[in-house]
Structure formats: C-alpha cells, structure tokens
Prior knowledge:
By secondary structure, this protein is of the alpha+beta class. Helices cover 14% and strands 35% of the residues. Mean pLDDT is 86; it is low at 5-19.
Amino acid sequence: xxxxxxxxxxxxxxxxxxxxxxxxxxxxxxxxxxxxxxxxxxxxxxxxxxxxxxxxxxxxxxxxxxxxxxxxxxxxxxxxxxxxxxxxxxxxxxxxxxxxxxxxxxxxxxxxxxxxxxxxxxxxxxxxxxxxxxxxxxxxxxxxxxxxxxxxxxxxxxxxxxxxxxxxxxxxxxxxxxxxxxxxxxxxxxxxxxxxxxxxxxxxxxxxxxxxxxxxxxxxxxxxxxx
Length: 227
C-alpha cells in the first residue's frame, strides 16, 4: 500500500512538471491548436475567426484583418510572460496586450511594429508607438535590439503595479501603474477617456490582429506568488 502511494505521488509530480515545464512556466500554446484562447473578429468580418487565427508548422499564424484578437480564456495576476514573434512583409503591426478586463480588448500594449517601414513609428509623443513601447504612453528604443526578419523574443513582467518590457533579453522600459505620474501619462494618450483603463489587478493576455501577417510561438507564463 505504501509503495502504491509513493508511486502515485511520483507520477503526479512527473505530470505536473511536464505541464508546467522544468522552470515553472506553463505553456499557453500547445503547438497544435488554439485551446485556451478566445478568437474574436469584427462582427462584419467576411471570414470566420478560425480562418484568420490558425496553427501552421507549430506556430500561431495571424493572417491579418482590420480588427480582431485572440485572448486567453483565463485571467492572470502577477507573472512573467514570454512570447516569440516575427512578422512577414514590410510595415507590419501587431501587439501583445495585457491588463485586459472590463474593456474587452483595451489595455496596456507591448507594441510590435516594423519601425523602419510603418508610419506609426513617427507618430505619438516622443516615439511611444515604436517597437516595445507601452503603446501611446511610454516610449522604448526597442528597434535597437530587433532581429530584423527573424524571430524576436518579448517578455512582460507584472508584479502588482510594477511592469517591465523586455526585448531579446534587454529591458527596454519599466513603469508603475497608478499614481499621479501614471494618470498624467494616460491623460495625454488616446486612452484618456477610457473608463478604468487597465484597472484592477491582472487580466487577460491578448495577441492583436492588425491587418498584417504575424507569427507567434513559445507562449509561456510563469505565475508569481501563486498560492
């Protein structure tokens, strides 16, 4: 009886390690299908979301529509989120959004942009629409660390109200959500009139569809302070 109990406990530990990974990270994409994600397109879209968001060669393929997104079914609190991405063609635009709650698809965004060819790189205040920036709020010099035409790695770290953006192993910005400085920055952005913008603790994570062909892979999350 004791041997059976030990064997069962050992098997459970192996299964938990396989699901979460040896480093404690959980796979948010299994490489086969989009289980765990909600797929959304504009109501008047001519094609179904299942044709826009697909899996090809073990990667997520976002074909590009004027409006849409794929969003985690779960909400997450404190975490480190890892994703690899690459765009196809020139002037591509996408983004990884987080703190997604009551506003559906509106929240903070790790901007993914071809800075050299997309006009948004020159718009906004002080370049806050460039690659890696907190979109339309805080600028980052992400273009300096880009692997052009190849896979790039984005990492978002959320610890309560403290947030970091990383690109290809380099920290490119950090900020604290809430407080006078945060409110001032948001008030000068396109989100000034969004009620409770990025409010609350945590939220869904979202991959943006912005009319360009973009691939994602190796989506992983390590939840911090999880009880």
